[in-house]
Design a protein that fits this description.
The chain is α/β, with parallel strands linked by helices. It has helices at 16-20, 33-46, 60-68, 92-99, 121-140, 151-161, and strands spanning 7-11, 49-50, 53-56, 74-75, 145-149, 179-185, 188-196, 218-219. The strands form two sheets. A six-stranded mixed β-sheet has the order 4-3-5-1-6-7. It has a two-stranded antiparallel ribbon with strand order 2-8.
Length: 228
């Protein structure tokens, strides 16, 4: 069987709210100078790769990250961040204090409506499944995909890829400006690398040999294989 492609996940660079820990769903934040540097640091890695599909969240922080990283592609509303409803702009500590519930997390309680309707965790997974469905024919052709989006959305998408319920996304961490890769080991959907940045190694196992489905994009002929 011919090898299949992989999905490269890019979380946007730092914003003021990602730095402060405020839940940032549909608020259209711009990158901080450090966030712009995060994005630009991806360019030397990604310029050596060809992708069969590039999908980008419509929000500015993702679009700017893609542009600064040297990527162009289609915007996809299914890659929007989780709609946090009434919790938009709030930190977890603020919310726990207001609710007098020290066990609260975004994962274990319903999301109330606010300025926006809000989404439940499984609603985000429904969108993630649609995105993965768009990637499937590209992967089957042996080409790689790249998704430029947001922390919680990409964590839920990772759980969905692995066949886990949406709440399984709580088990992963994705820092601003990080790269991860989803692919296959034989017929099994797996994580190939997680939460890597150009300035540090991946927190998962070392990357596999440079083959389709085991590379962060197909290297152009004559180019060294990028380590993500």
């Amino acid at each position: 069987m011919e090898s299949r492609g992989c999905i490269v996940l890019i979380r946007h660079g730092q914003t003021e709210w990602s730095l402060s820990g405020q839940h940032t769903g549909r608020t259209d934040m711009q990158l901080t100078p450090a966030g712009a540097a995060d994005a630009a640091a991806l360019r030397p890695v990604l310029r050596r790769c060809d992708f069969g599909l590039v999908l980008i969240s419509p929000l500015r922080r993702a679009r700017d990250t893609a542009r600064m990283a040297g990527l162009s592609g289609q915007t996809d509303a299914d890659l929007l961040e989780w709609d946090y409803g009434a919790w938009e702009g709030r930190t977890s500590a603020n919310i726990r204090g207001d609710l007098k519930d020290p066990s609260w997390t975004i994962w274990n309680r319903p999301i109330p409506s606010g300025a926006t309707p809000g989404e439940q965790c499984e609603d985000v997974a429904t969108r993630a499944r649609r995105v993965l469905g768009r990637c499937t024919p590209v992967l089957e052709s042996g080409e790689d995909c790249v998704l430029v989006a947001h922390g919680h959305l990409l964590r839920i998408l990772t759980a969905t890829w692995l066949g886990m319920p949406a709440i399984g996304g709580r088990l992963f961490t994705l820092d601003a400006g990080s790269l991860s890769r989803l692919g296959f080991e034989n017929q099994q959907e797996v994580i190939l690398s997680l939460n890597a940045r150009p300035d540090r190694p991946s927190r998962s196992s070392p990357p596999p040999p440079p083959l389709h489905g085991g590379a962060g994009g197909t290297p152009r002929p004559g180019a060294p294989h990028p380590h993500m």
